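Posting here for the record, re: aspartic acid.
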Amino acid sequence: MYRTHNCGELRTSDINQTVTLTGWVQKSRDKGFVTWVDLRDRYGITQLIFDADRTNKNLMESAKKLGREFVIQVNGTVIERASKNSNIPTGDIEILVSDLTILNSSKLPPFTIEDETDGGEELRMKYRYLDIRRNSVKNNLIFRHKVTQEVRAYLSLKDFIEVETPYLIKSTPEGARDFVVPSRMNEGQFYALPQSPQTFKQLLMVGGMDKYFQIVKCFRDEDLRADRQPEFTQIDCEMAFVEQEDILETFEGLTKHLLKVINGVEINSFPRLTYDEAMKIYGNDKPDIRFDMKFGELNAVTQHKEFKVFNNSELVVGIAVPGGNNYSRKDIDNLIDWVKRPQIGASGMVYVRCNEDGSYKSSVDKFFDQDDFAKWAKLTSAKEGDLICILSGKKNEVRAQLSALRMELAERLNLRDPKEFAPLWITDFPLLEWDSEAKCYHAMHHPFTAPKSNQIALLDTNPASVKANAYDLVLNGNEIGGGSIRIHDKNTQALMLKHLGFSEDEAKEQFGFLMNAFEYGAPPHGGIAFGLDRLVAILGGQETIRDFIAFPKNNSGRDVMIDAPAPIDKEQLDELGLKTK
Ligand code: ASP
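Prediction output follows.
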């Protein structure tokens, strides 16, 4: 037996017991006549003591030679510590060692295995197995395990069945490029890795599984934006015989359950906004509602004077920054520069100071009067002491710009408390979105999403106005889940594909299997998928998903530890029938 106890469990009640422990040498302190070693494993740290009075000479010598991260086994007796350490649970005891076996030596690690390490990101990724020994990474992985356990338990209790679906499939369009895998046995043909198990979970509903979930890897070959991974994990779910309301209720339940058991937070309010409302109030379809700063649309009260900038704008919109009247002229100039950065792209910003005495002072005093400002203040809910920031221009652009400013201000004002959780649903997404480059419509969610039933006819006359039975779950300004009620009859699916620009043959070739299945008694169904990596990060009070993935890829999609992707040799290429340039 390698060990009788782990390094986190011995207490004063174990004093005088003979024990065997194994672990890594965290650090050792050699004081000549006594050597202390901190022995570490996943469970904690236990102090070992070797002292000249009680330990034989050979053993003393071996103890002195132990290097950091050596793997050792010790036998010894649990004794009371002379100077106790109340910072760790084992801090009242130590082990007086009688035997020491070096199970494996270690090279000096390239960075310190401490909470505050001296290793940079790239180095820690290269030696991720050492990084995982650090508390922060280790605890994040344990936290992720707890969340997935809870998800499995909750959904199983609600009669969901976990079913595995294949990874080697045919392309399912979810808006990204596929990763493809050449088939050796079918030369010139390729599998695609699933962007999600979408069509399979729908086929499981046709198969009568009724309620399905899977914690599943998905693969999307996207240009990597910050904090995206080419492979990521979804909690993928589907239910038969449901309407949108059933799904929202079920997954509101899951979200509340997780927040309660994982974070100890009771959620009493679970608001819903339509997509149109969210865009109008927050300029964004994933609003962070932990703080206000709601948009006030000001066209009606700003376009009656000679101020051309506003008069020529499709949208004039403002937000009230709480306490912003404190900002100095320099602070405000800095904000103006911030919105004018190319990443944000505003052409300028108008501001109004709301003074404590109820008067206003603005950058457009030449054009507008106190009555005008009072109306603006009302529409943006600005109070005395606030600052109103106003942007104007094309509707979609201005909304995006002001939404970015809102988030930036919230960050600066510390309004984004990671311990506070504010989930909400966004519903009634548009079915289609116009791709101005490709000059065609794309499905906003995916091609299997059902339009609102009374709006199908609009597909011919005003496709952009058609709304879908599609919804997103948003938590603290992040989209953590999205789904829809699906089309479940062949004709509607064929019509949808036609509107997305598929010819009849293309539709049949790509989605024939699904449309055939719809001819054999497909039940009405719908579902949702949560992004597990992001959900775990947010519940863990952080926003970087990499920190919750055991072996993540870097921003260029590389695994720097195993050095992938990598070329393959010619023989392998030949066998696969692939040629290089
Ligand atoms: N398959 C969808 C996605 O990955 C989720 C869903 O519609 O259930 O976003």
